[in-house]
Amino acid sequence: MKRIEAIRCVMEELDGELVVCNIGYPSRELYSVRDRDENFYMLGSMGLASSIGLGLALSTKKRVVVFDGDGSLLMNLGSLVTIANQSPPNLTLIVLDNESYSTTGGQPSYTAGKTSLAKMARAAGIDNVLEVKSPEELKSAFNESKGKTSVIIAKVEKGNADVPIIPLSPYWIKKRFMKAAKGNRVQSQV
Fold it and tell me: What is the pTM assigned to this prediction?
């Protein structure tokens, strides 16, 4: 399956969920599939989608969906340990694994070799880790992930869809996302 197909497959299942998307082409593909105020397009923090998604999931009652890439997650493996130990039931991390750094030129990532992100997520302590290779499997895994901390490794083809650059400023992306997320904060225990 192509990455844009995987993104479309998940977006068809969403209503008011908050979405954080990895930098570069994944964000551009998400924008072209279904732009919404609830989408946060990362434009420059490679490796931090999982951490931003975790912080968001800990601060809201809404379900948080993160689209990350294998290369980006490999840059921040500590996020898996933190996700496992915090275990927010409203967080679903979807790793779009094309075994390459697609946005920066298609260099192979280590998931093309011996490294298994699914095994790493399980070893970190995440109980619900699913691996999928088709849109049908992804849709099923995504729906199964609701209500529990989940990592879905979706194997996708190398390459980027021919989509335009997002025509929104970083300021506007942040402003409209914050407005969409506002009012759903968990009351402080302090």
Answer: 0.94
